[in-house]
Amino acid sequence: MKRVAIIGYGTRMRTVVKELLRTGQVQIVAVADPNEEGARKSAQKNGVEDCRFYSNAEEMLEKEQLDGVCIGTRCSLHTKYALLAASKKIPMYLEKPVCTTYEDLEKLKGILDWSEKTVVSFPLRLTPLVAHIKEILDSGKIGEIAHVQAYNNVHYARGYYHKWYRDEGETGGLFLQKATHDIDYINYLLGGIKPTSVCAMKSKQVFKGNKPAGLKCRDCDERERCPESPQNVQKLQDGTVPGEYCCFAVDTGNEDSGSMLVQYENGMHVVYSQNFIVRANAGGRGARLIGYLGTLEFDFRTGVVTLHHHTEKVTETYTFQDEKSTHFGGDAMLAQNFVRVMQGLEFSASTLAHGINSAEICLGARESAQTHRFVSLSPV
Length: 380
What we know:
Elements: E1 2-7, H1 11-22, E2 26-32, H2 36-45, E3 52-54, H3 57-63, E4 68-71, H4 78-87, E5 92-94, H5 102-109, E6 118-120, H6 128-139, E7 145-153, H7 159-162, H8 168-171, H9 174-189, E8 195-203, H10 230-236, E9 257-264, E10 269-275, E11 284-291, E12 294-299, E13 304-309, E14 315-319, H11 330-343, H12 352-371, E15 375-376
Parallel strand pairs: 1-2, 1-4, 2-3, 4-5, 5-6, 7-10
Antiparallel strand pairs: 7-11, 8-9, 8-15, 9-10, 11-12, 12-13, 13-14
């Protein structure tokens, strides 16, 4: 049984811990979180009872004998605790994005010797759907990839404007918060071709306004008729619940759509767009990969993969039935990989190097959108 500690036991960590416990090979022995009451509630929801709680991670790592640590703090602290875990030579499960600034990106490059003992939370690359797509690509059925068109239409995005996620100082912005997943699986499917530059644009068309900073929905005199108030959103029964802050206030951060172009060393480029306005059945996440011999398209949400052959009138369709699993089945695969990393049976399938490369592209996209220029990339 592997002894694992948690640094930052929030909503995301509940899912990670659930999958780790499901393997039957992990025991959660300690938790470090400044919000001990909230951490205890999260642990209880996972059925974790016999563990020790600490107010800071440094003390916990000094006192506990651990086989692994999971880092699920707010995004701006991911690098800090990754450096701490690496200094103790403890295998770690690290939430994305691995960093939110260029300064932290450079710090992470200093612990690349711990890359294969670090499992970065990129579940999309490990989904059964992506595994099947990789097989098709490696078979040569579409030829060499000449172009990629990818998208993420986020139908559950209210939290990015109503909750703490609206603070771009914490998240690093929505390229780092969301696109980092998609850029990683695209890099994986491209098979190691290195990105060389990125340009991007973002816009804020809906979630903006002149309401006072810090305004909460409960204090707003328009809450009865506002389509984004908690009471009206709950009437929609669309599965999303906003937080307490007004999304039309002057301090509402985050763009509501963004796009980037990524150039690769062989001259090929990827176009990727994400938006946070769509709702309900308009949501979707996937890509089109185009080669001379064929086009392969897929959507994670529907679980449908379609292969169009260019040289004959043949279309192949595959449907995956696990699309309702957390992160489309990828979370379970990541948990199993982390257990085997702790056991010394295999290396990470989603390494720190992968996390750094994805973060650099997203940091570059953020910079490009702000400066309106191309940004050069230096992947590790």
